[in-house]
Amino acid sequence: MPGPLARRRAVATTALLLTASLGACSGDSSEPSASEPTSSESATPSGSSTPSPSPTTDSTPEPKLPKAPAAKDTEAGRQAFAEFVIERWGYALRTNDASALSDLSPGSGPCQGCKELESELKKRKKQGWYVDFPGARVAKVDVVAGDEPGVQVATATINVPASESYFKDGELRNENEARKGAKFEVRMRLDGKRFVLLAFRVT
């Protein structure tokens, strides 16, 4: 029977793909839901009994918060915002800081998915672990008009690279497999001089 370390190293791809539901239409009042990390998945025995060192040390700089691109009411501008949201999502996973996305919400309230993201990342932080996430790679972005005036929906095809999750003391928690062709949806609206994030999800 594999020991505790082997169980923690079980492959958990969806630990990276923390998702939030995007309503089928803007009038959808259903509550968004977040997928649970797969830390409870069945164990995959590991050939190594020595934990890898944590990639984060006192000399390693913290990742920089991605800056928003210029808000342009064009297809290119909307594509750039969608890619920016994906970068912020990666930053949130790496730092357990959900404000990277929730700060992009409109003044009326947090985006669909932001509360779930915040709840999940708070739990990870309390448990003392994080994903050493190198960031998703965007293959393409398609943008279509939403069902409300001014609302646009971008669907990006992304490739999620393999990564590892670590406890704060540097012990390896689990390994996360790469995933190609995932879909990242971003619902947005241009409010004055900035785009606001209305909802997001990863499938």
Brief synopsis:
This protein has four helices and seven strands; from the N terminus they run H-H-H-H-E-E-E-E-E-E-E. It is α+β, with helices and mostly antiparallel strands and 203 residues long. The chain has one domain: Nuclear Transport Factor 2, Chain: A, CATH 3.10.450.540.
- Total DSSP E strands: 7
Give the helix/strand class: alpha+beta
Strand composition percent = 25-35%
Biggest sheet features: 4 strands, antiparallel
Helix content: 10-25%
What does the overall shape look like? Answer: globular
Average pLDDT confidence is 79
The run of helices and strands is: HHHHEEEEEEE
- Reported by name, the CATH topology is Nuclear Transport Factor 2, Chain: A
In total, the number of domains comes to 1
Strand order of the largest sheet: 2-3-6-7
> Which spans of ≥5 residues are poorly predicted at pLDDT below 50?
1-16, 18-54
Q: Which CATH top level class fits?
A: Alpha Beta
Count the helices. How many? 4
Distance between the termini: 33 Å
Radius of gyration using CA atoms only = 18 Å
Throw out a few tags for this protein.
three-stranded antiparallel β-sheet, disordered N terminus, alpha+beta, four-stranded antiparallel β-sheet, 203 residues, Nuclear Transport Factor 2, Chain: A
How would you sum up this structure, described in words?
The protein is an alpha+beta fold. The protein has one domain (4-23, 71-202): Nuclear Transport Factor 2, Chain: A (Roll), CATH 3.10.450. Helices cover 22% and strands 27% of the residues. The chain has 4 helices and 7 strands. The protein has helices at 4-8, 75-95, 99-102, 114-127; strands at residues 129-132, 137-145, 151-160, 163-167, 172-176, 179-191, 194-202. The protein has a 4-stranded antiparallel beta sheet with strand order 2-3-6-7, with helices on one face. Strand 6 (179-191) and strand 7 (194-202) form a beta hairpin. The longest helix is centred in the middle third of the chain and has 21 residues, at 75-95. The protein is globular and about 50 Å long. The model is unreliable at 1-16 and 18-54 (pLDDT under 50).
